[in-house]
Prior knowledge:
Strand order of the largest sheet: 1-3-2
Order of helices and strands: HHEHHEEHH
Radius of gyration: 20 Å
Largest sheet: 3 strands, antiparallel
Strand content: 5-15%
Helix content: 55-70%
Number of helices: 6
Shape: elongated
Amino acid sequence: MSENGRDAEAVSKFVESFAAQLVEAGMQRMAARVFAALLSSDEGVMTSAELGEQLRISPAAVSGAVRYLAQQHLVSREREPGSRRERYRVHSDQWHEALTNRETVLKRWEGALREGVVSLGGHTPAGRRMAETLAFFEFVDGEISAMMERWRVEREKRFGR
């Protein structure tokens, strides 16, 4: 047992199991392991050294994983108070952030698809395919916005502010 009363071996098994699920869904393996470790830590914050020790990986592996996770808006970097060392934080709303940032990508795709419809001509088979793809992304974008608002209400109900 660790200081906080958790079984370190059980935590390790969870981290590897959840990471495997994330990898199966398309996340990079090392990033998945780092994310699962951060998510399962009580504070949601760990240094590179702590991550390296827990996962038995090199500082370079931690750095690459954190870079990927930060780009995906799943973790943030912060300075350890009074130190030059960085620590990495997973937030309770990381999934909300990640999906919200996907909305930006969808908007860019919608713009490109609109150009495609105009360029190809809406009356051509390719133009109709573009138009249908555009309609799909517009629909998804609207659904994500509505879903995020429902989640905000649900989260507040379950966990408070």
